[in-house]
Amino acid sequence: MRILVFGATGASGILIVRELLAKLQSPTVVIYARSPEKLPEDIATNPQVIVIKGELDDEDGLDKALEGSDVVVSVLGPIVTKGPFHPSGTPLAKAYERIIGMMKKKSIKRLLALGTASNADPADKFSLKFSTLVAGVATFARNAYKDVVAWGELIRKEDDLEWTLMRVAILTSGESKEYAAGYIGASNIGTFLSRAAYAAFVVDEIERREWVRKAPMIASV
């Protein structure tokens, strides 16, 4: 299986790549990154990893990265510490639009993409803690909020894609890989998720396909 990962140089992305390499049978992991020098040595030197340097608006680079891929995993998202200063104009949604368009041309159907609680789902129920969290983001990081909502809406419209919008709230550095997946308002869905558990979900979903064309909220248990 050949898996293309966007956002692999971040804290979550690194753990996801390691989990893919550890748990899947003979995978090839392609990393498309603007700054591949940020990759730790164990990933950068792994013979099952292919690293391609490029920007999200570089169609030649994207074309090379997508070639032959079976699954696209994207953890592209606003940088939390820069939330209030996220650029206007929904740049990440535009990047997703470009990537999805190129996936279609290459008949790549499987996409697992980062989402957040700002991506409301019809199956969600009221939750004061999640409502407060989303309201805070919408107020103090308006551009980031608009971008997240925009790419979520874009992905949901893609009936030809086998997409999963992996919604997360507050990511932590905890080591537990135990998680629950469901919808906002359920008693077992809290606001915290360890990055290790997030990585475990990605691998499980690639193998089990339990959330195709769905947007689960993932939480640590």
TrEMBL record:
GO terms for molecular function: oxidoreductase activity, acting on the CH-NH group of donors, NAD or NADP as acceptor. Residues 7-207 form the NAD(P)-binding domain. Gene3D superfamilies: NAD(P)-binding Rossmann-like Domain. It comes from the Eukaryota. Belongs to the avfA family. PANTHER family: FLAVIN REDUCTASE (NADPH). This is NAD(P)-binding domain-containing protein. It comes from Pleurotus ostreatus (Oyster mushroom). The lineage of its organism: Eukaryota, Fungi, Dikarya, Basidiomycota, Agaricomycotina.
